[in-house]
Each structure stands twice: as structure tokens, then as C-alpha cells.
Amino acid sequence: MEWVQLPLGPMQTNAYILYNDRQECLVIDPGEEPEKIKKFISKKELKPIAILLTHAHFDHIGALEAIRSHYKIDVYMHIQEKSWLQDPDKNGSGLFQGITPITASPAENLWEREETSQIGNFRFELMHTPGHSPGSISFYFRESSLLISGDVLFQGSIGRTDLPGGDMGILMKSIKKLLTLDADTYVLPGHGPVTTLADENRQNPFLQ
């Protein structure tokens, strides 16, 4: 499996495209700039099979509808945020002056529990990691030693908890759960550069 990180929009939210030797790909957190996402997919001659959301904040869903409709693929997310796509106040786009309210149609698939999931030829573990938002999910691709953490854990930082549904105590419990994974696991965060669990456990000032 290969992957690319695409920082999108003014908040430089990281979308990820994971692809395999069958040319299938998953699109994770299409935050903005759908043409940039489509350009990479076209260049690599990939076939998108699903959109996965780590959570439903506005900066992670801005290009969702454009990508879903263009490729006619389903969206997967956690059930606790099932109404957020349709509600600008819940997804945060209605809370900040100067941001155009963002809405999208409901997700076709809702995860309710932690489990091992398979979409196409991609197999991964769902880890419910709330605290930044109630329905935050981290996707763990064990065979590839990859963890897509959304806005839970960053290089040298952690997710904010001052938005609706945020909770610092719950967030820290979620991060501790992530730290039980193999230390060499690469962390692909929602913003900023890639890191590893070992580096964050050793150097992240919020975890000391």
C-alpha cells in the first residue's frame, strides 16, 4: 500500500489518498480543493472506492460532496457525528465569521463500534478516539504500520478541545490508547507533518 498527504485549503488540512497495486484508493478527509485531489487520482490512474472521515469538522469535509458525486462513492464515518454533515453549527463552519457554511448529504455508512473493517482490498482497525470531537476515529493499518489520527495527535501537539463536544480528559485517554500501538507506527495527522508514536511519546510536551 502507498499513500500521499495533500495539505488542502487555508487551514492546510491533510487529506490522504491510500492506494494499492490494484489501483484502488481510499480518500480520507477531503477538506478542500477537490481539483487537487482529482488531479492526483487522475495522474496515478486510480479508482476511488470510498471516502473515510476521521471526524466531521468543516475543514475535513469541504470537498466531500464534490468528490463523492464525481466518483459516485460512499462516505464512512462514526455514528456519533451522523448529523454534522448537514449542520454548519455542529461541523463548525457556522461558528466562525468569514467561513462559508458547509453542508453535505448524510453519510451512507456509519460505524458504531471499534472493529476491523475491510473496504475493497484495504483492511484496517477502527479506533474510537474522542476528545477533539465525539465521533473522532483513528484508522490503524497494522500491516503497513500506519495510523491516521485526524485531529487527535500531531507532531509535538494534540487536538484542540474548545469546540462543541471537545473534552481534554477524554482526549488524553484516547491518545494513551494510541500509544499502546507499536512504537514504530507512523502517525499521519490531520494537520502538519508525519511523525511516529515513538517520537511523540518521547518528545511531545503534552505527553510528558
TrEMBL record:
- Keyword terms of this UniProt record: Hydrolase, Metal-binding, Zinc
EC number in record? 3.1.2.6
Keyword Electron transport recorded: no
Q: Per the entry, which co-factors are needed?
A: Zn(2+)
Q: Which segments constitute the Metallo-beta-lactamase domain?
A: 12-191
The entry lists its GO molecular-function terms as: hydroxyacylglutathione hydrolase activity; metal ion binding
Q: Which Gene3D superfamilies match?
A: Ribonuclease Z/Hydroxyacylglutathione hydrolase-like (3.60.15.10)
- Which PANTHER family does the UniProt entry name for this protein? HYDROXYACYLGLUTATHIONE HYDROLASE GLOC
Name of the protein described by the UniProt record = Metallo beta-lactamase
Q: Supply the source organism for this entry.
A: Jeotgalibacillus alimentarius
